[in-house]
Specification:
By secondary structure, this protein is of the alpha/beta class. Helices cover 44% and strands 16% of the residues. It has 13 helices and 13 strands. The model has no long low-confidence stretch (mean pLDDT 94).
Length: 364
């Protein structure tokens, strides 16, 4: 069978989508030698990525979510003529009508994250959102099979599109970062890793770190690992407005070794999102033997079970109390929770994810 995979998000610089793409391909390379694969790649990894004999690389350099992407992807796929395509995101060419599988990571844009989540003029935003829904709806309705990273997203798809349950499979992602050493004595900072989009709810975290420092004789820092973009600039303005700039450090452009170190030395990783499709950074924290404080939302309860401390994402006061709770934990309690969370996170495996994905290719 010839399987094409749209791997243009390959690379850690592409966040969660990048990690998903990299680990899926890595595990498929290791486990499948009978099928033929065609990888659609951007120029950077088209040149540098080494692949086994049953893998072929095809250059597709059009920008994601663009009109050019729709034309070029369609042309390339028609030339390749695969038995099935796996689109790792929703951007499927509208006129592609051959068999494909699509991974839907979340429906965040469906929920109206709105003008605050864009830098475009209003008229451009409206046009872009309309285009998004046309492409997204096509991707879902015409797929042979849909993969989601959580039951939460599967339920959202079923509710929005009335898709039969047998056409949607939940395949949990894995986790790569890992601290093989014993848990370290934490330094005086809390950690957040991710984008600064409005639904990430970092403003509540900024308020909480301010309240914590008002009540404490010791200074506690907040380290934010986030890309350098317009949303980070907005974040800096919020920091000034809330008078917390002296407590907050923003880091970007760090590699996995540095990231693992930041996780391992943090008092806790704080994940204050209003909505997510999965929540990989929380599992990374567990594997790095770091306490996890997460917003009390359905998907986090599904993925983290009872291995996180939960708070209402609408209450900075409640989050402050949770920060204090973790700070005041006795050492033996902390170590026990870190150990059980570490073992729990290990049940999420990229290898298992790839095997389940291969099974879908075979039956589709």
């Amino acid at each position: 069978m010839k399987i094409a995979i749209d791997a243009r998000f390959y690379g850690a610089e592409n966040g969660g989508l990048g990690r998903y793409t990299m680990n899926l391909l890595s595990e498929i390379e290791r486990s499948d030698i009978k099928n033929t694969y065609v990888l659609l790649l951007r120029e950077k990894y088209f040149k540098t990525l080494a692949t086994p004999k049953n893998f072929q690389k095809v250059l597709v350099n059009s920008r994601h979510y663009s009109f050019t992407e729709q034309i070029e992807l369609l042309r390339v796929l028609n030339n390749v003529n695969p038995d099935i395509v796996h689109f790792l995101h929703f951007n499927v060419p509208f006129f592609y009508n051959k068999p494909y599988v699509v991974t839907i990571h979340d429906l965040l844009m469906h929920t109206g994250v709105g003008k605050a989540a864009t830098t475009l003029p209003r008229w451009k935003y409206v046009v872009k959102r309309l285009g998004y829904r046309i492409i997204f709806d096509h991707a879902v309705k015409n797929s042979k099979h849909i993969i989601t990273p959580s039951q939460f997203v599967k339920k959202q798809i079923a509710k929005t599109y009335n898709i039969p349950a047998q056409r949607v499979s939940v395949i949990y992602e894995g986790v790569s970062l890992m601290n093989s050493k014993a848990a370290q004595s934490p330094e005086n900072y809390f950690l957040y890793v991710g984008n600064a989009y409005p639904h990430k709810n970092i403003k509540t975290l900024l308020r909480a770190i301010g309240l914590l420092n008002e009540k404490s004789q010791k200074v506690f820092k907040l380290v934010l690992v986030t890309p350098r973009d317009v949303f980070t600039d907005r974040l800096k303005k919020q920091m000034k407005e809330l008078h917390v700039s002296k407590f907050v450090e923003i880091k970007n452009g760090i590699d996995d070794k540095q990231l693992k170190s930041l996780y391992s030395k943090a008092i806790a990783f704080v994940y204050p999102s209003f909505s997510e499709g999965f929540g990989l950074p929380g599992l990374e924290a567990m594997k790095c033997k770091t306490r996890l404080i997460a917003s009390d939302i359905e998907v986090f309860r599904e993925v983290y079970k009872d291995h996180a401390e939960y708070f209402s994402p609408h209450s900075s006061e409640e989050l402050t109390l949770m920060l204090q709770k973790v700070l005041e934990e006795k050492k033996d309690v902390r170590l026990t929770k870190l150990s059980t969370a570490y073992l729990f996170a290990a049940t999420y495996s990229w290898e298992k994810m790839a095997r389940a994905t291969l099974a879908i290719y075979e039956k589709s």
